[in-house]
Amino acid sequence: MSVSKLPNDKVAAGQLLNTRFTPMTLAGEEALDKFVSFLYASLEKGIYHNQFNVIDSTILRAAQKDPDKYRNLIVRVAGYCAQFVSLMPEAQEAIIARTELKL
Question: For the range 4-7, what are the long-range contacts, defined as Cβ-Cβ under 8 Å and sequence gap of 24 or more?
Answer without folding.
Answer: 4/42, 4/45, 4/46, 4/47
